[in-house]
Amino acid sequence: MSRIAFFGIILVLILGTGSGYxxxxxxxxxxxxxxxxxDERQNIFVKVGVTGFEIKAAEKRTPLNVAIVLDRSGxxxxxxxxxxxxxxxxxxxQLNENDVLSLILYSDEAEVTxxxxxxxxxxxxxxxxxxxEAGGMTALxxxxxxxxxxVKKFYDKERVNRVILLSDGLANVGPSGTGExxxxxxxxxxxxxAVTTFGLGExxxxxxMLALAAASDGxxxxxxxxxxxxxxxxxxxxxxxxxxxxxxxxxxIPGEEIKVLRCLNRDIDRDDxxxxxxxxxxxxxxxxxxxxxxxVPASSASQERTLGTARISYRNMVSRVTDELSSxxxxxxxxxxxxxxxxxxxEVTQDAALMLAxxxxxxxxxxxxxxxxxxxxxxxxxxxxxxxxxxGEIGGSARLKAAAELNSVQADTIESDDSWTTTGRKAMxxxxxxxxxxxxxxxxx
Length: 445
Known about the structure:
The chain has 445 residues and is an alpha/beta fold.
Protein backbone atom coordinates (compact mmCIF):
# COMPACT_ATOMS: atom_id res chain seq x y z
CA MET A 1 0.00 0.00 0.00
CA SER A 2 1.34 3.47 -0.90
CA ARG A 3 1.98 6.03 1.83
CA ILE A 4 -0.64 8.34 0.26
CA ALA A 5 -3.29 5.61 0.25
CA PHE A 6 -2.40 4.88 3.87
CA PHE A 7 -2.94 8.55 4.75
CA GLY A 8 -6.41 8.41 3.15
CA ILE A 9 -7.48 5.35 5.16
CA ILE A 10 -6.13 6.82 8.38
CA LEU A 11 -8.00 10.08 7.83
CA VAL A 12 -11.36 8.31 7.52
CA LEU A 13 -10.74 6.81 10.95
CA ILE A 14 -9.62 10.14 12.44
CA LEU A 15 -12.47 12.27 11.11
CA GLY A 16 -15.31 9.79 11.57
CA THR A 17 -18.64 10.05 9.78
CA GLY A 18 -21.48 11.39 11.98
CA SER A 19 -25.17 10.50 11.89
CA GLY A 20 -28.44 12.10 10.80
CA TYR A 21 -31.21 13.54 12.98
CA UNK A 22 -34.36 13.99 10.92
CA UNK A 23 -35.14 17.27 9.21
CA UNK A 24 -33.39 19.56 11.65
CA UNK A 25 -29.74 19.77 12.58
CA UNK A 26 -28.62 18.72 16.06
CA UNK A 27 -26.65 20.98 18.39
CA UNK A 28 -24.79 19.73 21.45
CA UNK A 29 -22.63 21.57 23.98
CA UNK A 30 -20.75 19.04 26.09
CA UNK A 31 -17.93 19.19 28.64
CA UNK A 32 -14.97 16.82 28.58
CA UNK A 33 -15.88 16.04 32.19
CA UNK A 34 -19.26 16.67 33.85
CA UNK A 35 -18.13 16.28 37.49
CA UNK A 36 -15.11 18.24 38.71
CA UNK A 37 -13.04 18.18 41.88
CA UNK A 38 -14.03 20.62 44.60
CA ASP A 39 -12.03 23.63 45.68
CA GLU A 40 -9.70 23.60 42.64
CA ARG A 41 -9.49 26.01 39.75
CA GLN A 42 -9.19 23.85 36.64
CA ASN A 43 -9.27 23.91 32.85
CA ILE A 44 -11.51 21.61 30.83
CA PHE A 45 -12.81 21.47 27.26
CA VAL A 46 -16.25 22.22 25.85
CA LYS A 47 -17.26 20.83 22.48
CA VAL A 48 -19.93 22.72 20.53
CA GLY A 49 -20.98 20.36 17.76
CA VAL A 50 -23.56 20.65 14.99
CA THR A 51 -24.63 17.63 12.94
CA GLY A 52 -26.53 17.96 9.68
CA PHE A 53 -29.74 16.01 9.34
CA GLU A 54 -29.71 13.06 6.96
CA ILE A 55 -31.20 13.22 3.50
CA LYS A 56 -31.73 10.29 1.17
CA ALA A 57 -29.91 10.24 -2.16
CA ALA A 58 -33.24 9.97 -3.97
CA GLU A 59 -34.60 13.19 -2.43
CA LYS A 60 -34.66 16.35 -4.50
CA ARG A 61 -31.33 18.06 -3.98
CA THR A 62 -30.62 21.76 -3.58
CA PRO A 63 -29.74 23.49 -6.88
CA LEU A 64 -26.05 24.29 -7.39
CA ASN A 65 -24.31 27.46 -8.54
CA VAL A 66 -20.80 26.31 -9.38
CA ALA A 67 -17.78 27.95 -11.00
CA ILE A 68 -15.08 25.56 -12.21
CA VAL A 69 -11.74 27.40 -12.32
CA LEU A 70 -9.08 25.41 -14.18
CA ASP A 71 -5.35 25.98 -14.42
CA ARG A 72 -4.38 25.65 -18.09
CA SER A 73 -0.78 26.88 -17.72
CA GLY A 74 2.05 25.19 -19.60
CA UNK A 75 2.81 22.80 -16.74
CA UNK A 76 -0.66 21.27 -17.19
CA UNK A 77 0.20 20.05 -20.70
CA UNK A 78 -0.29 16.35 -21.50
CA UNK A 79 -2.16 13.97 -19.23
CA UNK A 80 -2.88 16.65 -16.61
CA UNK A 81 -4.98 18.79 -18.91
CA UNK A 82 -6.70 15.71 -20.36
CA UNK A 83 -7.69 14.50 -16.89
CA UNK A 84 -8.75 18.01 -15.83
CA UNK A 85 -11.04 18.18 -18.84
CA UNK A 86 -12.47 14.77 -18.03
CA UNK A 87 -13.04 15.86 -14.41
CA UNK A 88 -14.90 18.98 -15.56
CA UNK A 89 -17.01 16.86 -17.92
CA UNK A 90 -17.95 14.57 -15.04
CA UNK A 91 -19.35 17.51 -13.11
CA UNK A 92 -21.22 19.00 -16.06
CA UNK A 93 -22.86 15.67 -16.92
CA GLN A 94 -24.38 15.50 -13.41
CA LEU A 95 -25.88 19.00 -13.47
CA ASN A 96 -29.44 19.72 -14.55
CA GLU A 97 -31.41 22.69 -15.86
CA ASN A 98 -31.94 24.02 -12.32
CA ASP A 99 -28.18 24.31 -11.76
CA VAL A 100 -25.92 27.19 -12.77
CA LEU A 101 -22.41 26.63 -14.12
CA SER A 102 -19.53 28.84 -15.18
CA LEU A 103 -16.11 27.82 -16.48
CA ILE A 104 -13.04 29.98 -16.00
CA LEU A 105 -9.61 29.14 -17.42
CA TYR A 106 -6.42 30.86 -16.33
CA SER A 107 -2.85 30.99 -17.57
CA ASP A 108 -1.27 34.41 -18.33
CA GLU A 109 -4.67 35.86 -17.45
CA ALA A 110 -8.13 34.61 -16.55
CA GLU A 111 -10.69 33.92 -19.25
CA VAL A 112 -14.40 33.36 -18.64
CA THR A 113 -14.96 30.57 -21.15
CA UNK A 114 -18.54 29.80 -20.07
CA UNK A 115 -20.26 32.73 -18.34
CA UNK A 116 -22.61 31.78 -15.51
CA UNK A 117 -25.64 30.14 -17.09
CA UNK A 118 -28.26 27.53 -16.36
CA UNK A 119 -27.29 24.15 -17.71
CA UNK A 120 -29.78 23.93 -20.54
CA UNK A 121 -27.31 23.37 -23.40
CA UNK A 122 -24.99 20.72 -22.00
CA UNK A 123 -23.39 19.90 -25.34
CA UNK A 124 -22.28 23.49 -25.90
CA UNK A 125 -20.58 23.52 -22.49
CA UNK A 126 -18.89 20.18 -23.11
CA UNK A 127 -17.59 21.45 -26.46
CA UNK A 128 -15.95 24.39 -24.67
CA UNK A 129 -14.29 21.96 -22.27
CA UNK A 130 -13.04 19.75 -25.11
CA UNK A 131 -11.38 22.77 -26.75
CA UNK A 132 -9.18 23.61 -23.73
CA GLU A 133 -5.43 23.64 -24.40
CA ALA A 134 -2.52 24.22 -22.01
CA GLY A 135 0.06 27.01 -22.24
CA GLY A 136 1.34 30.09 -20.43
CA MET A 137 1.82 31.19 -16.82
CA THR A 138 -0.39 30.88 -13.68
CA ALA A 139 -2.69 33.84 -12.85
CA LEU A 140 -4.32 31.99 -9.95
CA UNK A 141 -5.58 35.06 -8.07
CA UNK A 142 -7.27 36.47 -11.17
CA UNK A 143 -8.83 33.08 -11.98
CA UNK A 144 -10.26 32.73 -8.49
CA UNK A 145 -11.55 36.31 -8.52
CA UNK A 146 -13.31 35.73 -11.83
CA UNK A 147 -14.83 32.49 -10.52
CA UNK A 148 -16.24 34.26 -7.47
CA UNK A 149 -17.62 37.04 -9.69
CA UNK A 150 -19.44 34.52 -11.90
CA VAL A 151 -21.00 32.77 -8.90
CA LYS A 152 -22.20 36.15 -7.59
CA LYS A 153 -24.21 36.71 -10.79
CA PHE A 154 -26.65 33.97 -9.76
CA TYR A 155 -26.00 34.02 -6.02
CA ASP A 156 -29.05 32.76 -4.14
CA LYS A 157 -29.41 31.59 -0.54
CA GLU A 158 -31.54 28.75 -1.91
CA ARG A 159 -28.58 27.44 -3.93
CA VAL A 160 -25.24 25.94 -2.94
CA ASN A 161 -22.78 28.58 -4.17
CA ARG A 162 -19.27 27.26 -4.76
CA VAL A 163 -16.00 27.77 -6.63
CA ILE A 164 -13.92 24.70 -7.51
CA LEU A 165 -10.29 25.70 -8.15
CA LEU A 166 -7.58 23.46 -9.60
CA SER A 167 -3.88 24.32 -9.81
CA ASP A 168 -0.68 22.35 -10.29
CA GLY A 169 1.84 25.16 -9.85
CA LEU A 170 2.87 28.36 -8.10
CA ALA A 171 0.89 31.54 -8.70
CA ASN A 172 3.29 33.65 -10.77
CA VAL A 173 1.04 36.29 -12.34
CA GLY A 174 -0.68 38.86 -10.11
CA PRO A 175 -1.05 38.60 -6.30
CA SER A 176 0.62 35.43 -5.06
CA GLY A 177 0.99 35.75 -1.28
CA THR A 178 -0.77 33.46 1.20
CA GLY A 179 -2.15 36.51 3.02
CA GLU A 180 -3.66 37.93 -0.17
CA UNK A 181 -5.36 34.66 -1.07
CA UNK A 182 -6.59 34.20 2.50
CA UNK A 183 -8.12 37.67 2.40
CA UNK A 184 -9.85 36.78 -0.87
CA UNK A 185 -11.17 33.58 0.70
CA UNK A 186 -12.42 35.41 3.79
CA UNK A 187 -14.38 37.87 1.67
CA UNK A 188 -15.80 35.07 -0.48
CA UNK A 189 -16.83 33.06 2.57
CA UNK A 190 -18.52 36.07 4.17
CA UNK A 191 -20.50 36.44 0.92
CA UNK A 192 -21.68 32.83 1.25
CA UNK A 193 -19.38 31.38 -1.43
CA ALA A 194 -17.05 28.53 -0.47
CA VAL A 195 -13.88 27.94 -2.48
CA THR A 196 -12.69 24.35 -2.70
CA THR A 197 -9.06 24.05 -3.79
CA PHE A 198 -7.48 21.06 -5.50
CA GLY A 199 -3.68 21.04 -5.46
CA LEU A 200 -2.22 18.73 -8.08
CA GLY A 201 1.25 17.22 -7.95
CA GLU A 202 4.46 18.41 -6.34
CA UNK A 203 4.76 22.07 -7.36
CA UNK A 204 1.75 24.01 -6.03
CA UNK A 205 1.86 26.16 -2.87
CA UNK A 206 -0.01 24.16 -0.24
CA UNK A 207 -0.02 27.00 2.32
CA UNK A 208 -1.69 29.33 -0.16
CA MET A 209 -4.24 26.81 -1.39
CA LEU A 210 -5.16 25.66 2.12
CA ALA A 211 -5.48 29.24 3.40
CA LEU A 212 -7.85 30.13 0.54
CA ALA A 213 -10.04 27.09 1.17
CA ALA A 214 -10.09 27.37 4.96
CA ALA A 215 -10.86 31.09 4.97
CA SER A 216 -13.90 30.55 2.71
CA ASP A 217 -14.96 27.34 4.51
CA GLY A 218 -14.27 25.20 1.47
CA UNK A 219 -12.42 21.89 1.20
CA UNK A 220 -8.76 21.42 0.30
CA UNK A 221 -7.53 18.25 -1.39
CA UNK A 222 -3.99 17.23 -2.28
CA UNK A 223 -4.07 15.15 -5.48
CA UNK A 224 -0.87 13.21 -6.13
CA UNK A 225 -1.94 11.49 -9.35
CA UNK A 226 -3.70 13.33 -12.18
CA UNK A 227 -5.65 10.18 -13.06
CA UNK A 228 -7.61 10.67 -9.83
CA UNK A 229 -8.98 14.08 -10.80
CA UNK A 230 -12.34 12.82 -12.11
CA UNK A 231 -12.89 10.89 -8.88
CA UNK A 232 -12.04 13.90 -6.71
CA UNK A 233 -14.24 16.29 -8.72
CA UNK A 234 -17.05 13.74 -8.51
CA UNK A 235 -16.71 13.60 -4.73
CA UNK A 236 -16.91 17.39 -4.49
CA UNK A 237 -20.11 17.38 -6.56
CA UNK A 238 -21.56 14.65 -4.35
CA UNK A 239 -20.89 16.60 -1.17
CA UNK A 240 -22.12 19.90 -2.60
CA UNK A 241 -25.36 18.13 -3.49
CA UNK A 242 -25.72 17.02 0.15
CA UNK A 243 -25.61 20.45 1.79
CA UNK A 244 -28.53 20.61 4.25
CA UNK A 245 -27.74 23.89 6.03
CA UNK A 246 -26.04 27.14 5.07
CA UNK A 247 -25.01 30.36 6.80
CA UNK A 248 -24.52 28.62 10.15
CA UNK A 249 -24.00 31.30 12.82
CA UNK A 250 -22.85 30.12 16.24
CA UNK A 251 -22.38 31.76 19.63
CA UNK A 252 -21.13 30.52 22.99
CA ILE A 253 -21.99 32.61 26.04
CA PRO A 254 -19.89 31.54 29.04
CA GLY A 255 -21.52 31.08 32.40
CA GLU A 256 -20.79 33.26 35.40
CA GLU A 257 -17.05 33.37 36.21
CA ILE A 258 -16.25 30.98 33.35
CA LYS A 259 -13.41 32.19 31.16
CA VAL A 260 -12.87 30.98 27.58
CA LEU A 261 -9.11 30.66 27.15
CA ARG A 262 -8.89 29.62 23.50
CA CYS A 263 -10.46 27.70 20.64
CA LEU A 264 -8.32 24.77 19.52
CA ASN A 265 -9.42 24.43 15.92
CA ARG A 266 -11.14 27.46 14.46
CA ASP A 267 -10.97 31.24 14.26
CA ILE A 268 -13.42 32.83 16.68
CA ASP A 269 -14.48 36.37 17.48
CA ARG A 270 -14.92 37.77 20.98
CA ASP A 271 -17.35 40.44 22.15
CA ASP A 272 -16.72 40.89 25.85
CA UNK A 273 -16.82 37.25 26.91
CA UNK A 274 -19.17 36.06 24.16
CA UNK A 275 -17.69 33.82 21.48
CA UNK A 276 -18.96 33.81 17.90
CA UNK A 277 -18.08 31.53 14.99
CA UNK A 278 -19.59 30.43 11.70
CA UNK A 279 -19.65 27.75 9.06
CA UNK A 280 -20.60 28.30 5.44
CA UNK A 281 -22.44 24.98 5.20
CA UNK A 282 -23.25 21.65 6.83
CA UNK A 283 -23.59 18.35 4.99
CA UNK A 284 -26.03 15.48 5.42
CA UNK A 285 -25.17 13.32 8.45
CA UNK A 286 -21.91 15.19 9.00
CA UNK A 287 -20.71 16.83 12.22
CA UNK A 288 -18.66 20.01 12.52
CA UNK A 289 -17.50 21.41 15.84
CA UNK A 290 -15.35 23.80 17.80
CA UNK A 291 -13.35 22.79 20.86
CA UNK A 292 -13.08 25.51 23.52
CA UNK A 293 -10.74 25.41 26.48
CA UNK A 294 -12.40 27.04 29.50
CA UNK A 295 -11.23 27.93 32.99
CA VAL A 296 -13.59 26.93 35.81
CA PRO A 297 -13.22 28.61 39.22
CA ALA A 298 -12.89 26.61 42.44
CA SER A 299 -16.31 25.56 43.73
CA SER A 300 -17.73 23.69 46.69
CA ALA A 301 -19.08 20.13 46.72
CA SER A 302 -22.51 19.59 45.14
CA GLN A 303 -22.44 23.04 43.56
CA GLU A 304 -23.49 23.17 39.89
CA ARG A 305 -22.18 25.62 37.34
CA THR A 306 -23.24 26.48 33.83
CA LEU A 307 -20.15 26.42 31.63
CA GLY A 308 -21.96 28.17 28.85
CA THR A 309 -24.89 28.31 26.47
CA ALA A 310 -24.38 27.52 22.79
CA ARG A 311 -26.77 28.87 20.18
CA ILE A 312 -26.83 28.47 16.42
CA SER A 313 -29.00 29.67 13.58
CA TYR A 314 -28.87 28.35 10.03
CA ARG A 315 -30.74 28.30 6.76
CA ASN A 316 -32.44 24.92 6.41
CA MET A 317 -32.02 23.96 2.75
CA VAL A 318 -34.96 21.54 2.84
CA SER A 319 -37.61 23.52 4.72
CA ARG A 320 -36.27 26.88 3.41
CA VAL A 321 -36.63 28.49 6.83
CA THR A 322 -34.14 29.66 9.44
CA ASP A 323 -33.78 27.25 12.33
CA GLU A 324 -32.50 28.25 15.76
CA LEU A 325 -31.14 25.79 18.32
CA SER A 326 -29.57 26.04 21.76
CA SER A 327 -27.75 23.74 24.18
CA UNK A 328 -26.30 24.24 27.67
CA UNK A 329 -23.11 22.70 29.05
CA UNK A 330 -23.02 22.22 32.84
CA UNK A 331 -20.75 20.70 35.47
CA UNK A 332 -21.10 19.93 39.15
CA UNK A 333 -18.50 19.37 41.85
CA UNK A 334 -17.66 16.42 44.07
CA UNK A 335 -15.11 15.32 46.66
CA UNK A 336 -15.09 11.85 45.09
CA UNK A 337 -12.18 11.34 42.69
CA UNK A 338 -13.83 8.16 41.38
CA UNK A 339 -17.03 10.04 40.54
CA UNK A 340 -15.02 12.69 38.72
CA UNK A 341 -13.17 10.07 36.70
CA UNK A 342 -16.40 8.28 35.77
CA UNK A 343 -17.85 11.51 34.41
CA UNK A 344 -15.30 11.85 31.60
CA UNK A 345 -17.04 12.27 28.22
CA UNK A 346 -15.08 9.96 25.94
CA GLU A 347 -16.11 11.61 22.69
CA VAL A 348 -15.30 15.15 23.81
CA THR A 349 -12.00 13.99 25.33
CA GLN A 350 -11.14 12.20 22.09
CA ASP A 351 -11.92 15.20 19.90
CA ALA A 352 -10.06 17.61 22.17
CA ALA A 353 -7.02 15.30 22.09
CA LEU A 354 -7.13 15.23 18.29
CA MET A 355 -7.14 19.03 18.15
CA LEU A 356 -4.37 19.42 20.73
CA ALA A 357 -2.27 16.93 18.79
CA UNK A 358 -3.05 18.80 15.57
CA UNK A 359 -1.64 22.00 17.07
CA UNK A 360 1.54 20.10 17.92
CA UNK A 361 1.56 18.60 14.42
CA UNK A 362 1.55 22.14 13.01
CA UNK A 363 4.40 23.08 15.36
CA UNK A 364 6.40 20.11 14.09
CA UNK A 365 5.91 21.30 10.51
CA UNK A 366 7.17 24.77 11.45
CA UNK A 367 10.23 23.23 13.09
CA UNK A 368 10.90 21.16 9.97
CA UNK A 369 10.57 24.28 7.81
CA UNK A 370 13.22 25.89 10.00
CA UNK A 371 15.55 22.95 9.40
CA UNK A 372 15.11 21.58 12.92
CA UNK A 373 14.50 18.00 11.82
CA UNK A 374 15.39 16.31 15.12
CA UNK A 375 13.15 18.62 17.15
CA UNK A 376 10.27 18.17 14.68
CA UNK A 377 10.57 14.40 14.87
CA UNK A 378 10.53 14.51 18.67
CA UNK A 379 7.28 16.51 18.62
CA UNK A 380 5.62 13.95 16.34
CA UNK A 381 6.84 11.02 18.42
CA UNK A 382 5.49 12.68 21.58
CA UNK A 383 2.22 13.21 19.73
CA UNK A 384 2.03 9.49 19.02
CA UNK A 385 2.64 8.69 22.68
CA UNK A 386 0.09 11.26 23.88
CA UNK A 387 -2.64 10.07 21.51
CA UNK A 388 -2.13 6.43 22.49
CA UNK A 389 -2.20 7.38 26.18
CA UNK A 390 -5.50 9.22 25.84
CA UNK A 391 -6.93 6.30 23.86
CA GLY A 392 -6.02 4.02 26.75
CA GLU A 393 -7.51 6.36 29.34
CA ILE A 394 -10.91 6.42 27.64
CA GLY A 395 -11.02 2.68 26.99
CA GLY A 396 -9.86 2.70 23.38
CA SER A 397 -10.37 4.89 20.33
CA ALA A 398 -9.77 3.87 16.72
CA ARG A 399 -9.56 7.54 15.71
CA LEU A 400 -6.87 8.38 18.26
CA LYS A 401 -4.85 5.29 17.40
CA ALA A 402 -5.10 6.11 13.69
CA ALA A 403 -3.89 9.66 14.37
CA ALA A 404 -1.04 8.27 16.50
CA GLU A 405 0.07 5.98 13.68
CA LEU A 406 -0.09 8.81 11.15
CA ASN A 407 2.12 11.00 13.37
CA SER A 408 4.59 8.11 13.48
CA VAL A 409 4.64 7.88 9.67
CA GLN A 410 5.10 11.64 9.41
CA ALA A 411 8.03 11.46 11.85
CA ASP A 412 9.77 9.16 9.37
CA THR A 413 8.78 11.27 6.36
CA ILE A 414 10.32 14.51 7.63
CA GLU A 415 13.77 12.90 7.77
CA SER A 416 13.85 12.41 4.00
CA ASP A 417 14.47 15.61 2.06
CA ASP A 418 13.06 14.05 -1.12
CA SER A 419 9.83 12.82 0.46
CA TRP A 420 9.37 16.03 2.42
CA THR A 421 9.77 18.46 -0.48
CA THR A 422 7.66 16.46 -2.95
CA THR A 423 4.63 15.02 -1.14
CA GLY A 424 5.37 14.89 2.58
CA ARG A 425 4.78 18.52 3.47
CA LYS A 426 1.70 18.81 1.27
CA ALA A 427 0.13 15.71 2.80
CA MET A 428 0.88 16.97 6.31
CA UNK A 429 -0.68 20.40 5.67
CA UNK A 430 -3.74 18.85 4.08
CA UNK A 431 -4.10 16.53 7.08
CA UNK A 432 -3.92 19.46 9.50
CA UNK A 433 -6.53 21.44 7.59
CA UNK A 434 -8.97 18.55 7.28
CA UNK A 435 -8.65 17.70 10.97
CA UNK A 436 -9.33 21.28 12.03
CA UNK A 437 -12.42 21.67 9.85
CA UNK A 438 -13.75 18.09 9.87
CA UNK A 439 -13.59 18.20 6.08
CA UNK A 440 -15.76 15.81 4.11
CA UNK A 441 -13.06 15.52 1.43
CA UNK A 442 -10.08 13.27 2.13
CA UNK A 443 -6.93 15.39 1.95
CA UNK A 444 -4.79 13.14 -0.23
CA UNK A 445 -5.40 10.93 -3.21
